[in-house]
Amino acid sequence: MLSVEHFNNLISRNLNNPTVLVDLGNSVLDEREASKEHYQVALRAIEQAVKLVPRSIPALFTRARLKSNLGLTAGAFRDFNTVIQMKPDVYAAWYWRGMLYYQFKDYKSAVMDFVQTVMLAPDFSEGYLLRGYALMNLGGYAEAAQDFNHVIGMKAERSGEALYHRSKCFYNLRQIELAIKDCDNLLQIGWVSTEIYCMRAMCYLVIREFDKAIADYDLALQLDPNNADILHNKNETVLAKADAIVEPIAENNAVENNAATTDEPKVEEGKPKKKANSKTKVENKTPENDPDKDKGEEEKPKKKTPNKKKDE
User: Does domain 89-180 have CATH number 1.10.150.20?
Assistant: First the structure.
């Protein structure tokens, strides 16, 4: 990547050329290794372009993105709003404004912007993916799964990511077999990770396939042997399996004891006997096994977004 000094020299030589100045700003946005200093220099170039052509949509849009990356979110919102008002069919403006809303956890506004994004650009997979994330954070798992279906069907670059999050949607919708199938497919295409094994283990717990759940936790521990959460979940699953074995034995013994006596069994009034519920025990003690865990968990897009909202 060009040095900051080199960018400054290019800006100085093109102070009266708004097209070159906008191109310089976009070249910085395209660089993953760009530093804060690079963004600041690029913003200076764009400010000059806006002075030359105040109603330039490319300049305003690029300035909005640079301000967003620098944490100048109030100014970024203003520029995105201006672009959308001037030219509502610029889908990228809706998308990046939606990303800003998402960053500040305004998921409803983010969904609305992503709706506009995919309406204007039906083949833009990122719009469906990010709308799916926002919907998950709102508890709309069925709708989110449909968006992830779009991404998977497009065979987009992030289709594996969409497949993983669809499995989480299926889990929360209690479509357990579908969730397990997605986890199986992820492992088959090489997405081997503790997250996938733990996700599948949680699914097996729901359908009381304790041995399979324990096996998946063991596989996860092979990848991360010192992960205390995974070890805790495995131990809780072992206890749940033991409870599931003991419960029918206790019930059988009670039946035999009742058959051996003519007296009616005594039950203390007002205190009915409670059955052990191994599934509830595991889920209550282990947040990772809570079916509502994803409801409060923010699904984060893998894009550069500002950390704090502050004025321009």
Answer: no
Euclidean distance between CA atoms 58 and 50, whole angstroms: 9
* Residue entry with tokens 């954070």: 137
Distance (Å, whole) CA 167 – CA 182: 6
Neighbours of 248 (CB within 10 A): 9
Q: For residue 270, give the DSSP letter.
A: T
Residue 30: how many other CB atoms lie within 10 Å? 9
Per residue in 162-218, pLDDT (tens digit) is 999 999 999 999 999 999 999 999 999 999 999 999 999 999 999 999 999 999 999
Q: Residue 171 and residue 203: Cα distance in Å, rounded?
A: 7
The span from the CA of 177 to the CA of 139, in Å, is 20
Closest CA to 69 of 311, 263, 307, 268: 307
Of 302, 306, 303, 295, residue with least CA distance to 141: 295
Contact between residue 97 and residue 84 where contact means Cβ atoms under 8 Å apart: yes
**Domain locations along the chain:** 1-87, 89-180, 192-252+275-290
Question: pLDDT tens digit string along 260-299?
Answer: 443 433 333 333 333 333 333 323 333 333 434 444 445 5
Largest CA distance in the chain: 104
CATH number of 1-87: 1.25.40.10
